[in-house]
Amino acid sequence: SVENYSGYTAPLPPGWEKRSDAVTGKTYYIDHNTRTTTWNHPCPDKPWKRFDMTFEEFKRSTILSPVSQLADLFLVAGDIHATLYTGSKAMHSQILNIFNEDGSKFKQLAAAQNVKITLQRRYKNAVVDSSRQKQLEMFLGLRLFKHLPSISLFPLHVCHHMESLQAFRL
Q1: What is the pLDDT of residue 34?
Q2: What's the DSSP call for residue 5?
Q3: Counting beta carbons within 10 angstroms of the beta carbon of residue 62, is it exposed (0 to 12), middle (13 to 18) or buried (19 or more)?
Q4: Could you tell me if 89 and 117 are in contact, meaning their C-beta atoms sit under 8 angstroms apart?
Q5: Distances (CA, A) of 33 to 13, 14, 37, 39, 116
Q6: Which of 38, 44, 72, 112 is deepest in the core (most CB within 10 A)?
Q7: Which tens digit of pLDDT belongs to each residue from 44-55?
Q8: What domains are defined for the chain?
């Protein structure tokens, strides 16, 4: 249940005390200044409180089963951004197993997936990207002697109409 994942909360103001209900185990707060109690923490959490948490606090305050399922889905389906920008799935996805209680069973899958992705990327870098690089160099007119060895390195001289007539008469 969500109540088991009580993580970081803001410190209590002076005169406040935190206790647990003996019957339900639910946390409540006592204001000794006004002699009242409440189920809600007197100081609301900061909107970005998770950035101030340690890893253990974050892990305790997070319901792990949905995160674990999302990590498994990510390992199977891959990262859409990595696929769009590099043409292959994301690498080094074993880091996602830190939220998995039984992360060891996915460690081998992640390692094998990373090897596969590494080989795919090396192939694409060597073959596909080199072809694109050649196309770009040819478009920009760079290193034409390498790509088109039969082409003259000197630009063609374009004659104007009068020059061509004079050359023809000679």
Answers
A1: 93
A2: -
A3: middle
A4: yes
A5: 10, 9, 11, 16, 64
A6: 72
A7: 767 777 787 888
A8: 2-53 (2.20.70.10), 64-143 (no CATH)
Q: In sequence order, what are the residues at sequence separation of 6 or more whose Cβ sits closer than 8 angstroms to the Cβ of residue 148?
A: 138
Q: Report pTM.
A: 0.29
Please give the single-letter amino acid code of residue 55: F
Q: Say if CB 59 and CB 28 are below 8 A apart.
A: no
- Are 61 and 8 spatial neighbours (Cβ–Cβ below 8 Å)? yes
Question: Long-range contacts made by residues 13-22, C-beta under 8 angstroms, separation at least 24?
Answer: 13/42, 13/43, 16/42
**Buried-state track 75-111, b at ≥16 Cβ within 10 A, e below 16:** beebbeebeeebebbbbebbebbebbeeeeebeeebe
Asked if pLDDT for residue 13 goes beyond 80, the answer is: yes
* Structure token digits, residue 19: 């206790």
Say if residue 3's pLDDT is above 50: no
Which residue in this structure is represented by tokens 């920009």? 140
Q: Which residues pair with 80 in a beta bridge?
A: none
Biggest distance spanned by C-alpha atoms of the chain: 115
Read off the pLDDT of residues 22-61 as tens digits, 9 standing for 90 and up: 999 899 999 999 999 998 888 876 777 778 788 888 888 8
